[in-house]
Amino acid sequence: MLNKACLNLFDIRKMKNHVEIIEFSYTVIFTDARTIYVSELSRNITVKDLHEDFQSNGTIRQITIICKIFDDTEDRNNGYAYIEFDEESEVKRTLRLNRGVIDEHIVKVEKKWSDACTIFVGNLPDSITEDALRNHFQSYGVHPYRDIHSVTIKNGKKGKYAFMHLAGRDFVERALQANESHLDGKRIR
């Protein structure tokens, strides 16, 4: 079973007829060795589409597409998903799809480390580099290269953000202490 715990912190603005969620601060997802991470997906991709594309590699237990909710009738795919298989050997077969094409998008398919954790870091300065972001978390007890497996920095409509893959839950706890800290003049979330 997927070991999953999500921590979603939202900036919420109440509108006339609905609640708009502006952006989330952190999402923490604990995975095991039977789970892959797929990114760079089409915004129109569905669970059914992913099941059709990945089922030939093994028995799929669960597919989770990460979405941002805009109101109670609409949500938008963020372009990445977690797929859990029955067996770890099925994950190894699936990794060959890395840099393959799904729905006209070249996607990344990566193995998730056992007990690895991913956090979303938002409101990053435009000048941010991977090294600067890694080093920022060092003052919170997270070693920039031993404890952070990978960093993916992206440009969004509201500025730069990143996903950091950490070595374990205790490093997530330490990294979360950086919430609202300042990096190059911006308060990161």
In summary, what is this structure?
This protein has 189 residues and is of the alpha+beta class.
Report on this model:
This protein has 189 residues and is α+β, with helices and mostly antiparallel strands. It has two domains: 1-31 and 113-189, RRM (RNA recognition motif) domain (Alpha-Beta Plaits); 32-112, RRM (RNA recognition motif) domain (Alpha-Beta Plaits, 2-Layer Sandwich). It contains four helices and 14 strands. A four-stranded antiparallel beta sheet has the order 3-10-12-11. The radius of gyration is 17 Å and the shape is globular. The model is unreliable at 1-30 (pLDDT under 50).
Q: Secondary-structure map with pairings?
A:
Layout: E1 10-14, E2 19-24, E3 29-30, E4 35-39, H1 47-54, E5 60-71, E6 74-85, H2 88-94, E7 101-102, E8 105-106, E9 108-111, E10 117-124, H3 130-136, E11 148-156, E12 159-166, H4 169-176, E13 182-183, E14 186-187
Antiparallel strand pairs: 1-2, 3-10, 4-6, 4-9, 5-6, 7-8, 10-12, 11-12, 13-14
GO molecular function: poly(A) binding
Protein name: 7081_t:CDS:1
Pfam family, one: RRM_1
Count of DSSP H/I helices: 4
What low-confidence regions span 5 or more consecutive residues with pLDDT below 50?
Answer: 1-30
CATH class annotation of the largest domain: Alpha Beta
Largest sheet: 4 strands, antiparallel
- By DSSP, the count of extended strands is 14
